[in-house]
Fold:
Amino acid sequence: MKKKIRAIQYGVGPIGASIAKLMRDKQAIEIIGAIDLDPAKAERDLGEVVGASDAPWGVKVFADPQQALDLNADVVIHATSSSLAKVMDQLLACLEAQCCIVSTCEELSYPFRTQPELAAKLDAAAKEWGVALVGTGVNPGFVMDKLVLTLAAVSQRIEQAKALRIVDASQRRLPLQKKIGAGLSVDEFRTQVKAGAIKHVGLPESVAMVADSLNLPVENISETIEPKVASERVATEYLTVEKGQAAGVHQIARGLSKDGKELVHLELQMYVGAKDPSDTITLTGHPNISLTIPGGSHGDIATASVVVNSIPVILDAPAGLRTSRDLPIGFFSPSAKP
Amino acid sequence: MKKKIRAIQYGVGPIGASIAKLMRDKQAIEIIGAIDLDPAKAERDLGEVVGASDAPWGVKVFADPQQALDLNADVVIHATSSSLAKVMDQLLACLEAQCCIVSTCEELSYPFRTQPELAAKLDAAAKEWGVALVGTGVNPGFVMDKLVLTLAAVSQRIEQAKALRIVDASQRRLPLQKKIGAGLSVDEFRTQVKAGAIKHVGLPESVAMVADSLNLPVENISETIEPKVASERVATEYLTVEKGQAAGVHQIARGLSKDGKELVHLELQMYVGAKDPSDTITLTGHPNISLTIPGGSHGDIATASVVVNSIPVILDAPAGLRTSRDLPIGFFSPSAKP
Structure:
């Protein structure tokens, strides 16, 4: 019988907590430790921190990453920040501890065009230590890139790839509703966009992955972030958006050819009160083909799923920086034996 | 600069011809030969046999497989029969010639449960000769298995997997309309089902792939083939189906647990005059999620696409018998350089 996979949860925010709970469900995984700098979480039991009904788990949350990494894990599940620059040292420490990494860091999903130096550094470190890492989740990692490329398998020729994701943020957690600017005036919204405070991270990375994989000659990647203005009052459990206020984001990333032709178009509408949430992919070429997920894939649930399902896959992958594109599909049944 | 991929087309029926034409479009592929026993095709130019507008191609169709295999190809695209037993010798000869294989043989797509001895023999031979082979296409190979497993990546737990493929056979070629029994009386249809003449091959293979990959405890795989009876007269370019006659097949494969619970349900409705053709996948679990391809993926176009898109992937795969599940997604742009 094989041993259980020894996993460390790095970052115990809302996503990290849902990942930890999902890992706890998998017979083949043993969570051996967690890392979080927040004094409200550090030195406590992970099960208690995530509010698990079967707490305590006997799993410690360390404030010092190295103490956790010294436990000799097989894989680190990393969920601390969207910014690759900010998490470089965290990732390098995990690689040096010879741990594979599955990270929710959006900018890690496909950094080869956007941050090639950091990508090269991680790839070299991973190969040096004989481990593999991947940045993934539902978006980037699935809806607007991997699923687009999967559908492309039935295409003979592709001229343009589009994805539209409409998310109703009403049912989502407060930090997410705030992150998309719900309840701000349009002016405040634009100010916060300029300050970099309102932004879904990862669309340019998905554009790059799609363009490179489909061999579409994208030379420039542009991105716009506009408010989705409420046409009527919307009240959620946490906040109220008045008519005329921002209800959320309407963000579009475009991959353009040298002469400005739109080859890749990835559009995210995430706002409270969204009608008909869904994920839709449209490929123009031979043949034209589209695909819809009615209701859309639920952001937090889907991200935790994709991340945990990627664990056996990254453990099997060749050393280096991998992407959701390169990896075979993964599904990790709760009852899968170690 | 890398060399072009040297490919041989084995079998030049309708599917083989459309694969050959698609390969001809790809800059990175050089078709070096073809194989077909049909005296109407053998010893002729492949471009002329497939009716290409740019014929002749200077590519010979051999009646003797070994003569073609002696040309030292990298990959054989094999499209001769749905029956694995019938094509074993063909496949073994290709492996012995150290060619990778992408085959449309439906029973090869996932033979580990249905024909384990043949699967083991092919796997051993492929490993002995250091090459890889895969059976794939649109169904099996994509709609009812790979796409199901791809969608499963956003699931935390799956209780049941369903796929429904509705194909309007009106626009398809005559051999396909005949193969599905269009225009037969219901009695004739049942007689031909009993004789094994009417059957879409590959559903049990897809059930097995889905069950094994999702770790669903399927013990028995059953299959039913019923006529889809025309509720009104339908005329196609080739034939007419009167009201009350069979318009095509309604075929269901089920993966059942020990106690008879339906864990996998794959349903194919392929008939002339089908309304609302589409491919739909439904996963029950946490969360429930579904996906639809409106119009459905076109059988012949999609099969040729999937097969040709699998060529670079199989050349990169470890030696042995592979499945569409194990392989990363492939898309092979016409302009991709060798």
In short: Chain B has two domains: 5-137+301-322, 146-296. Chain B is about 30% helix and 25% strand. The CA atoms of residues 252 and 267 of chain B lie 4 Å apart.
